[in-house]
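Quick one: structure for this chain?
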Amino acid sequence: MANMNAPFGFRPVRRDDAAAVNYALSTRLIDPANVTPIGKGDLVKSTSTGFIELATPGGTRATGIFWGCTYYDTAQQRVQWMNQWPGVNTTEGDIVAYILDDPRMLFEAQVTGASPVTVADIGNNIDIAAGTITHAGFSGMSVNFATIATTATLPFRIVGLSQGVGNGYDATAQYNRVLVRLNAVDATTTTGL
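Got it. Here's what it folds into:
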């Protein structure tokens, strides 16, 4: 069965050491002046000013996976919990982002490109492909088949092919799903920004 091109960002699946997953979230801040939307499941990176922002292809380091945020919406006069940072400066005070940054967490992602990731690609690193956030605030990011390499600074390590039935689980067709782990992540990198 052919897989459909329907990227969904990065979904947490399990830890690679078989320990119990608690999906603990770290908190970081988004600059209120940041007008770039960030969707649930998007890869984010740290800035030199201490905030986080949407990661872009070709980056060398990641902070984690964005899992939502809270902020005071001046238009609605209340604190909002959102799947996404909408990129609209209608806030007062801090924008608190919730991040999955456990370096042992495995994430499922769709592969973009003309070919599927295969068993032979396991152990290599891979970059992201930018995507469009859905109307519900979910990521449209994926991993880019064309960037598979041994380059240590790519944000993800391919650790397996996703197993399942239905769209995305045909490992012989493009747009298949893979398991990846954060590779060059702030939590384990000793080099400062």
